[in-house]
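Lecture 7, part 2: worked example. A protein chain together with thymidine-5'-diphosphate.
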Amino acid sequence: MNIFVTGGAGFIGSNFIFYMLKQHPDYRIVCLDKLTYAGNLSTLKPVMDNKNFRFVKLDICDREGVFALFEEEHPDIVVNFAAESHVDRSIEDPGVFLQTNIFGTATLMDACRKYGIKRYHQVSTDEVYGDLPLDKPELFFTEETPLHTSSPYSASKAAADLLVMAYYRTYGLPVTISRCSNNYGPYHFPEKLIPLMIANCLNDKALPVYGEGINVRDWLYVEDHCSAIDLIIHKGKVGEVYNVGGHNEMRNIDIVKLICKELDKPESLITHVTDRKGHDMRYAIDPTKIHDELGWLPKTKFADGIKKTIQWYLDNRDWWEEIVSGDYRNYYEKMYGKR
Ligand code: NAD
Ligand code: TYD
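Predicted complex, written out as structure tokens:
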């Protein structure tokens, strides 16, 4: 089996590559990644010498490059993680989100049509469903929930999902889609809530909580997301969407307080800053379908996963310190300087 993993130098893609090489040591994995600010080749160092692994620096919007690689490698499965993934950046500059997330998805699927594929899997997000109100905890996103996006990021991901389903219906491309809740774990880029708060805590910097911090996210340990995708690409039904989440809802402020407690830092570091524009209130996945049809269940409880994650950031300071000392400083100043 030859699997193309796009965006494999990013957070979830790299974890997926490690997971797959462990679970299926006989599979070949080819990682395609443009190495944007979010891609980090050093993350893939542990597998660079694996004879079943190949890294190719490539933009998924580069039609010629993508087609040439398909011609050379003839992948059986494509798992598309490559995306611009940060909501705040999409609010500042939507253009590149449309380019990579929509046009890049279409380019990959065009190559799949031309060269033939056993499966094209699109890694999507629960954010395509929009948000749920805080005062109705009985509501969850199911696969039938209408798409109702809030940010340029989620709109671009929803557009990609619609294209994927259109390629299934129109061309019979064998596709599946997973829509996952917020991931956390090792190699998470420190612009996102959990790694940003851990890094700032460790540097005794202010912890910028948007608004009151009462927004709710449904957190899933990244390895559990990887196991769900592994199941879907092997056993999932073509043309289907699978929601992935672990019933683990937390308010942002509670997560930040927990990180302070684990790192023995004062809560006085918490600073409430101007809220995100169009900020989604609550995400909550109903994972019944993937549980009933494929037998998937998350393994890691949040209490354990967050400890493991914090320990990883303590043990791998070089990885994130290099990031936060580079271009990231300009990003941070722009996003948080006058907030
Ligand atoms: P990330 O930002 O950490 O990594 C994205 C990777 O894609 C980077 O390595 C980057 O270099 C690469 N990339 C970006 N543009 C590219 C292009 N044009 N061509 C090739 N590579 C390109 O993102 P992530 O958090 O790992 O998310 C991966 C996927 O999972 C995304 O599609 C995202 O929408 C989805 N997702 C993420 C979460 C989450 O909590 N992080 C939750 C649900 C779904
Ligand atoms: P984020 O990690 O950006 O994921 P998403 O917006 O895709 O869910 O943010 C998670 C939550 O944390 C979201 O409600 C916004 C909030 N947040 C902060 O309060 N402060 C921050 O500095 C960041 C990055 C996020």
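Residues 6-7, 9-13, 32-36, 38-39, 59-61, 81-85, 100, 104, 123, 125, 157, 180, 182-183, 189 surround nicotinamide-adenine-dinucleotide (ligand 1) (CB under 6 Å). The first strand starts at residue 2 and ends at 6. Keep this in mind for problem set question 3.
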